[in-house]
Amino acid sequence: MIEYQNEALVDFSRPENKDRMRQALALVKSQLGRSYDLVIGGQHVSTEAKIKSEDPSDVSQVVGYVAKANQAQAEQAMAAALQAFESWKHVDGTVRSRYMLKVAALLRRRKFEFSAWMCYEAGKTWAEADADVAEAIDFLEFYSREMIRLNERQPLIRISGEDNELQYIPLGVGIVIPPWNFPLAILVGMTSAAIVSGNTVIVKPASTTPVIAAKFCELLEEAGVPAGVFNFLPGSGGEIGDFLVAHPKTRFINFTGSRDVGVHINQLASQIQPGQIWIKRVVAEMGGKDAIVIDNGVDVEDAALTIVNSAFGFGGQKCSACSRAIIHTDLYDAVAKRVAELAKALTVTKSYDEHAHVGPVVDKNAYEKILEYMEIGKQEGKLLCGGEKAEGNGHFLQPTVFGDVPTEARLSQEEIFGPVLALTRAQTFEEAIASANATEYGLTGSVFSRNREHLEYARKHFHVGNLYFNRKCTGALVGVHPFGGFNMSGTDSKAGGRDYLLLFMQAKVISEKL
Ligand code: NAP
Ligand code: MG
Fold this sequence. Notes:
By secondary structure, the chain is of the alpha/beta class.
């Protein structure tokens, strides 16, 4: 097998790639408004109730109608997953990897089309959608190789007179609950990791992005993944999500999403149900309030560009997005001025428009919540740019920057998950790091500095799962930057790293006296 390497990003400055993307967008547009079924034990099931998926760039446009499962169907999915587990757990790990490598190949062939679906369904710009697809391919390729590694004979101290073996075996049925913001990459990563390590899953996609999830299920079917190994069960988080999390046969939950839902799932999963014979494993990756710290003496233009890129890429709707920049007082005015200029110059328009820098936010709830935070910001800080809705028949907001925001302000403490950036002034580097650490989160962070002692100080004291120096705080690459956060940012599962698959397995040691 060739060595793992990250999927290359598409260069959209090349005319042939622009053409391919335009064609893909036209194809997807011609397919908007279709209906998608549940998949339970390999059977397609349609339901009366539907989830309507809207285009956030143009709310008059329906991306698709997706079947909405109820608890009876969730129970059927559990039965199908339990049955499939009995055979899938005995399929050799290398064979399971081959299925996922096939899925990766199928996705690679259709990458422009999958990007186009995310432009329409999630409000991703071309480049953001392409990065999402590339990450999905990376997860499939990386975890497949990881499973092959874990399938080999594992190192143990050997003693004479005994044959000792450690095998990693799967856990059982897992519930996969992804967020909408990486509607393909995170869904694919969480699902493929669980499947390749021998578990069977029920996938409950985010209700805002169920169509892209249905498209991924088509790839799993095309690759011939056996019936019941994955079950596709869109539906309400509160209704079937809770039901599945609480189910006594659920062995683990692989969740990525907000802090509150993650905490709720963890609580519910900890209650032992009648008939339950294990403690459920909960992997929960949650929110962030990520900061870039700007030390004295760095290049203002470089710092400002990086802040703007990290804050407003995908409209700030990344768990890793920079929502705070904490700037040494000597550079504060210069950086703040430039950040506001650059943010103001961003083009906010429909995400499938090739000129868009920033598309819409994902839905009406997000839109209204972010507008509220813009009003809070006007009380807590100094508005430097934006602060209002933007034009269009979708959920468009102006990239917004507030200056002189105190560390204790709500704007500095609460995850907004939109195009709102808070700037904070620090008197010293140590004060800047303390301010960066002063939230309940700990996902990503970045430090711009030319001072070796300061960088070493940050290495020790900046308490985040993914710490970057002199670069943006977004864009973690599978295999290169294993990803996961501390504190209320989650269980630090380090997706895309060598520790990840072990979360979905248990070790069995067999010792035979010779
Ligand atoms: P969310 O509202 O927490 O939803 C995430 C998923 O949980 C959705 O599928 C949702 O279903 C489901 N859900 C909701 N209530 C549930 C319940 N009671 N039981 C079971 N499942 C339930 O998060 P989101 O708005 O989709 O995503 C944004 C959040 O994800 C942000 O906080 C962001 O920081 C975080 N995130 C973290 C990472 C990371 O790696 N740390 C990566 C990406 C995103 P419905 O859609 O049906 O409600
Ligand atoms: Mg949500």
